[in-house]
Description:
By secondary structure, this protein is mainly β. It has helices spanning 210-221, 324-327, and strands at residues 13-15, 36-38, 64-66, 89-91, 112-114, 135-137, 158-160, 181-183, 202-204, 226-229, 232-236, 238-241, 251-261, 272-280, 286-292, 299-306, 316-322, 341-360, 367-368, 392-393, 401-402. Strands 10, 11, 12, 13, 14, 15, 16, 17, 18 and 21 form a ten-stranded mixed β-sheet that branches. A nine-stranded parallel β-sheet has the order 1-2-3-4-5-6-7-8-9, with no helix packed on it. This is Bacterial spot disease resistance protein 4. Pfam families: C-JID (PF20160), LRR_1 (PF00560), LRR_8 (PF13855). Keywords: Leucine-rich repeat, Repeat.
Amino acid sequence: MPEEIGDLEKLVELNASYTLISRPPSSIIRLNKLKLLTFAKEESEDRVYFVFPQVNEGLLSLEELDLSYYNLIDGGLPEDIGCLSSLKELNLCGNNFEYLPRRIAQLSALRSLYLLNCTRLKELPGLMGMQYLDTLDLSYCNLIDGGFFKDIVSSLKKLHLCGNNFEYLPRSIVRLGSLRFLDLSDCKKLTQLPEFPQQLDTIKADWSNDSICDSLFQNISSLQHEISDSHSLSLRVFTSWAKHIPSWFHHQGLDTSVSVSLPENWYVSDNFLGFAVCYSGKLTDITAHLIPLLCDDGMTWKLALSNHSKCAAQCTIHFFLIPLVDLWDASNANGKQPNDYGIISLFFGELKAFGVRLLYKDESELCIGIRRSRNEETSCSSSKKQRSQVEVPVSSIPMQFFPTSPGF
């Protein structure tokens, strides 16, 4: 690259991708109308180390800088990189530095910082000066427990942590009040999810891990649900990607509706949290119907499902919890208790792959009985007769489920 390139005063974009340039001329900083500058590659070449010149308060209009896979090591980025006052997107993926310049935190206009596959990174500097940062990608950076989340700004909306080696996330992540998207996929050592920030609605994780599924719903159970009127309940929904309904859900199928036969004494006060539900495809409101053992109308609620995720409907599943504490209407119970109800029915309105599970705070010592399904009851009066009860761990209960018909 010639030294005279700095004389191109009107240059707006400069693409030097896939070149062998290792040290751009210092005159490049005089390109004060330049908005995009890239030296990106697809793979880092260890033989050539890249060094970016001192900024010296130049490149005044630069908004995008892409140095991905260009074999940057410590010292390859200028100490005064924080002088790039217009920079909105910085791509440093696939480089070999262990530390970033401290003054990188002075990039006050930065919105996106990409550090994917920076496997030698040992420390992330405080980012509190990046008041508009909304996307941070630290995927496959060999992150372990501790350290990296001390000073991440509250403006962050998307956090990518895919493929790292931590076993847990710090509780401080709940302070990311603007966070909407969290990617924890391929984090093979992760066994539980942290307490969620209030705005989070999309999360990627290993749903084949039962512990991850359980901690998701334990977290959801701690969130507040809003009762909008006497027969409507607004539920918070978390959206993700998955090819199949997770095996953690005991009851699975494909239909427009489902009924789950509840076991004997399924409700345990101070332990039962609600009905964990997931389904695939487009997010739609559903109807829940809690049906008593005796023949009467039961309780019916319309569930308004709220989520602002921008995921494509074809690839998504939605997780939500129907809490009995909000669903229960004592005025319509006619003296009955929760265990006097034997079936919960869910109506999706369209064909869905679904999963349902009864959620408890602690299942380790929980023993409840098996109740015969309605198909085994010969009449309404027969439900008053003595039913056999067998004590078994809840995780092994073969609760029955079956599609409902419109006239159920």
